[in-house]
Design brief:
The chain is mainly β. It contains three helices and twelve strands. The radius of gyration is 24 Å and the shape is extended. Helix content is about 10%, strand content about 35%. The chain has two domains: about 1-30 and about 120-145 and about 185-225, Translation factors (Elongation Factor Tu (Ef-tu), domain 3); about 30-60 and about 70-115, Double Stranded RNA Binding Domain (2-Layer Sandwich). Strand 1 and strand 2 form a beta hairpin. A six-stranded antiparallel beta barrel has the order 1-2-11-10-7-12. Strands 5-4-3-6 form a four-stranded antiparallel beta sheet.
């Protein structure tokens, strides 16, 4: 189903009509322009490409030379944005697949390049799924990465947080694939389902979602309808 790209602002609490305290994650989702439309006849599936934010464009110096300052939008991305009627290349581009062909299902409207998707596509009380990138923890051991128990803390033991034996001996004489080992932890794509939309602030483009959402503050998230 259709969704919207936003930025996680953080967590707070609100109170419902019964006076109950509800922990919510605030997502700022400014209007997303539709930069590309994929039809089922052309690709076998229906999808729309949404843009979020704006990148800086390359500036010309006093001598007429192009002088990039910081991260600048490539020429190809600028051209793609111009075709969609945008003045600047979006900071984030994501393709969202539609379950049904646009226009045939009344719940899935027909989108064209140049249309804008806002937080108005959601209603308070409905369930959504949110995809984000978890916080990166760097290189971690098995105790933190896999919640391993570690070694005993008794007198004389020096292997408290070590992994211990990692494989059999002569047969098969190798480490089995999938063995839980130390390594990079976090910074992975994660989707949280069944998050309830508690409140919508259309004027400030804010979504209040019940519970926690993966990622740090100011992290990019994709909020999609849950069919």
């Amino acid at each position: 189903m259709i969704g919207i790209i936003g930025k996680k602002l953080g967590m707070t609490q609100i109170f419902n009509e019964a006076g109950q305290q509800i922990p919510v994650t605030v997502v700022e989702a400014t209007p997303n322009p539709v930069t590309k439309v994929t039809t089922k006849e052309a690709a076998g599936f229906a999808a729309v490409e949404l843009g979020y934010g704006a990148q800086k464009s390359r500036r010309a110096s006093k001598k007429g030379e192009r002088e990039p300052r910081g991260v600048r939008a490539p020429k190809a991305e600028v051209g793609h944005a111009v075709k969609a009627g945008l003045q600047a290349a979006p900071r984030v581009l994501k393709s969202v697949r539609l379950d049904d062909a646009p226009g045939k299902n009344p719940e899935v409207p027909a989108y064209t390049v140049g249309d804008v998707v806002t937080v108005g596509i959601f209603t308070p009380g409905e369930l959504v799924k949110v995809t984000g990138t978890t916080k990166g923890r760097g290189f971690q051991g098995i105790v933190k990465r896999h919640s391993a128990g570690g070694g005993p803390n008794t007198h004389g033991n020096t292997k408290h947080r070590r992994p211990g034996s990692v494989g059999p001996g002569t047969d098969p004489s190798r480490v089995i694939k999938g063995k839980r080992m130390p390594g990079h932890f976090g910074a992975e794509r994660h989707t949280q389902i069944n998050l309830r939309v508690e409140k919508i602030d259309a004027d400030r483009h804010l979504l209040y979602l019940r519970g926690a959402v993966a990622g740090p503050k100011n992290g990019i998230v994709l909020v999609r309808k849950q069919g």
